[in-house]
Amino acid sequence: MTSRRLALRGRGGWGPPGLRLSVACLWALLPGLVFTDSCIWYGQCGTAFADKRYNCEYNGSALPLPKDGYDLVQELCPGFFFENVSLCCDVEQLRTLKANLELPRQFLSRCPSCSYNLLNLFCELTCSPHQSEFLNVTKTEPYLDPSTKTNKTSITELEFYIGQTFADAMYNACKDVEAPSSNVKALGLLCGKDAKECNATNWIEYMFSKDNGQTPFNMIPIFSDTPVHGMTPMNNATKGCNESVDDATGPCSCQDCSIVCGPKPQPPPPPTPWLLLGLDAMYVIMWIAYTAFLLVFFGVVFGVWCYRKRHFVSEYTPIDSNIAYSVNSHQNAGEASCCEKLGEKFENALRVTFTSWGAFCVRNPRPVVLFSVVVIVMCASGLSFVKLTTNPIDLWSSPSSQARKEKEYFDAHFGPFFRTEQLIIQAPHAKPEIYSPYPSGDDVPFGPPLTKDILFQVLDLQNAIENITATYDNGTVMLKDICLAPLAPYNNNCTILSVLNYFQNSQSVLNHTIQDEFFVYADYHSHFLYCVRAPASLNDTTLLHDPCLGTFGGPVFPWLVMGGYDADNYNNATALVITFPVQNYYNDTGKLMKVLAWEKEFINFLKNYDNPNLTISFSAERSVEDEINRESNSDVGTVVISYAVMFLYISIALGHIKSAARFLVDSKISLGIAGILIVLSSVACSLGIFSFFGVPLTLIVIEVIPFLVLAVGVDNIFIMVQSYQRDERLQGETLDKQIGRILGDVAPSMLLSSFSETVAFLLGSLSSMPAVRTFSLFAAVAVLIDFLLQITCFVSLLGLDIKRQEKNKYDILCCIKGGEEISSVQHSESLLFLFFKKIYAPFLLKDWMRPIVISIFVGVLSFSIAVTNKVEIGLDQKLSMPDDSYVMDYFSSLSKYLHAGAPVYFVLEEGYNYTTLDGQNMVCGGVGCDNDSLALQIYEAAGISSYTRIGYAPSSWIDDYFDWIKPQSSCCRIYNTTGQFCNASVVDPSCERCRPLTPEGKKRPQGEEFMKFLPMFLSDNPNPKCGKGGHAAYSSAVTFRNNSEIGATYFMTYHTVLKTSADFIDAMKKARMIANNITESMRIKGENYRVFPYSVFYVFYEQYLAIVYDTIFNLSISLGSIFLVTMVLLGFEMWAAIVVSLTIAMILINMFGVMWLWGISLNAVSLVNLVVSCGISVEFCSHVTRAFTISTKPTRTERAEEALSHMGSSVFSGITLTKFGGIVVLAFSKSQIFQIFYFRMYLAMVLLGATHGLIFLPVLLSYIGPSVNKAKARAAQERNKGTEREKLLF
């Protein structure tokens, strides 16, 4: 007997049987060490509570176990199964032991050594034939057996002497074991407190305390490695989690045993900032570059000034034979180059063509206008096919993008991601309360929203939301009709992620209390504290024995339903979060409209809900789109006023009133209105053409293109009208020839700007971003049509208006004459033109002023370059909402209270073979799985969540399936008659284990066996006997092909809390990095399958991964096209094209500087505005540059002055003043997007364009402008020979 006892005590480390027997005999001969096998109990007697029973006191030798208990011993305590199996427990006690260990074994069996040590502990306690050595009975009570009428004694308390070494080893083997479906440590479910606070001592104390609700009486553990009070502590050999229990199983996996993993992965250090001299490197570099530029520039300027003083006196001094000649005095000397001749011929061809065309339009106004109207009507008729896209996915995500394809794959295989209706609730007037656990324990504070009174009020609100009824298509819609119910049709309860689901959404469960007249033993406090540690539990370990699992059949994770707590102290929550996932019928319009109808009622209900004790922030899936539409509608008035201001200015500013008496004759209100209508008609034509071909409109197109085309169109209108007003009709020249001549002069400049913008926008349509591509297409066609209408319809209307003015007929009231007819309208020069000619241009181009201008503008450029890389990327959701939107409160609460980010699914594409051992090892996270498997790589990523932004270990269906199918578990059972699945809760003798309790049966299923039981696992609902059923957690995680092969599957986890655009972008990048690593690991092992991450926000934020590239690409291609078109249309003036392109590039870089200063982030909206800025900058620069190239004045400074005098006033009045009035109105918009991305950026682009085009560019041209084209100068001299213009130009 002694040898048998020693063999039992030394399992796993005593050597061969012969040696063990010899040592046992030797010990038996030693004095004072007399061992006897004796028990302290045998059998059950007396009831402790519910179905929990005491054990009967028994002082005697172990008794042979009846043979009907052999299977139980083999399963639970195989170390006792030898000889006649004499134990201190009967069959009933073994059955009780199995029932009590059911749930712990399910969670801990993932790690065989942990499960082995735990069973060792309870087997020694329950059945060891030498209990008396380490168990000491301290309390008993008499018991009369009702069946035998014999008196027995029930043990009601005992002391359990446990070796500290054993306890520590058992804890160390179990502390890392995961519960995959709950994303928590398994000890958090078994220790009575959070896993982080659990240790060997308090874990065993909790398991042996009757306060846990499972133990029938107190067993007081006493930990010691040496004998105490004559008792020898139980100190059996243990297995470490890195050791194999037997030949059939391996050590625990890295996920369940940290020492197997090796060193914990460390995140790479954050990139060190680029510093020079302790300061930002870009700042330092640009300061040095700017300082060097100033030294070189002013050195050159000073040197040239000294040179001129010595040789030329002054650039403005008249050049004659007595004074040294200027470098430009002989500009026409010598032969013109081939390029100059080609440029002159091209220029002349344009002039002749436009001159003839202008004269034709003035001679035939009615046919031209009628034809224009017919074309406008035909093109605009396409608006009857208009489609407006408001779906953010279609706006921001390209159909060919990675995120879009992955979303479509996910939707096709697993169904669309559910719609979310969410409330964040605070209790501002409630006070925190203190809960004092019975009979002992530290006081636990409970946050204001977790007081019972507030919970009842929140439950009433939740029930009211469930009862909201909407009407659609003559029917009613309630939450139950559209909600996500994962266990339907077996369980039709809606998924409601709420703390109240810990109480089954029931007032009676919330009120459930176990108490007497003196103490409260258990109530909602104790139940809550248990459920936040074990959300998947079906039976809490308090005296309440209430389930924690939600009524919908799934766990409610505490980090999803509470907010504002510290660390993992959920009891300190200051906010409750209630989420209603709703079905997303993405491709079923009828069902989707039902959901939208209910969501509308949901929003209306909460807007009108009034409870002074609750502060509620809320949002529905449709909220953002609704608020954007409301914002757009509310800003219609602002936009209309903005355009009205611009229209009014244009109508008045076009006229040149000589006197009050001639106001109605000289005004050009009707011509201004006609010009505006032409601009709007070009926009309508563009929209109509693309609508006819099925290209959908976007809000950006509607809001931005009129602004852009108005800037381009109005500028051209002012140039034509003011050029006519400043011109004097030549002797014998008719009106049609005069306007034709004027059009021949200005139309090439209009063609230059309009065609440059058209080509730039067309090339911009190559962008991969749908919003930018659509805008570019519409803008290109609108600008082109606007130009064509201006050189046809507007020229004809201008001729008619001049004829009216010559006949002294009133503007608008054209039938009324104001006086005698005049032969021609006298030329006149506006005050603005005179200001530019007499004051501004000469002042700007003074010798001392020009260096100051250059130094200031280069300084601003240097600053902008230094901060360009600091412009933030992304779009804050709050900016898309009106200031008064209820969603603003929701966004604020979201960032303040939420502790978990969006769910993220790691999808393994279909075709993967899960039925082979190697295939399983590459994805699972349990025993025997590869250390770089899919589950373990995600688990390791969660360990460095601050870097990877993966918050939790993944829910792994395959690992829970392996736990579910183990023969040690009671989960997988089938009817021995039919082979059908038998749920663990069914009591039927014909139900038997799916797999035998043999070494082979304990191995993982493979091949056909794997596929046979998997559907049973995915259809099994969790119950108290088996918490591993996969129906609720994994029914949608696994798809099947042809009902016989596994298709695509996913492993779900959560991102950490993401608050800013940078957080969302980084989370997506890191998730893709992890997925690529997993894919690469599989590829190395010969499996060519792809893993990709999917989260609902990826499709919106993917654009930002390439936004910098898209910005560089779009702006570079726009600048490149502007350079080429400018070079050709200026008559192959390459240097002039370079100057124009350089100035526009400076404007764009300075736009980035303004964006940084004004807090404007880089996103699709601002990128569109940058493209617009590129187009408008052409208007500011091209006209002045062309005027410079065709000027024949002798010096660059004089040519720049002439160009600025003639074109500056038109550009200033046509764009700057026109836009400024309209832009200022946008500042009063309620929309933050309008305030930031339209008011701020439009104001910046107009001011920067005006300052660069009217200040910097003329000065730059005066320094490095192209030389006079000799061929053009001679041609101009020939054309103007003998006229007054010859004296002006030469």
Automatic annotation (TrEMBL):
Family designation: Belongs to the patched family.
Membrane topology according to the record: Multi-pass membrane protein
Location, primary (coarse class): membrane
Matching Pfam families: NPC1_MLD, NPC1_N, Sterol-sensing
Protein name as it appears in the record: SSD domain-containing protein
InterPro entries: HMGCR/SNAP/NPC1-like_SSD, NPC1-like, NPC1_MLD, NPC1_N, SSD
Entry GO terms, CC: endomembrane system; plasma membrane
Reaction equation(s) it catalyzes: cholesterol(in) = cholesterol(out)
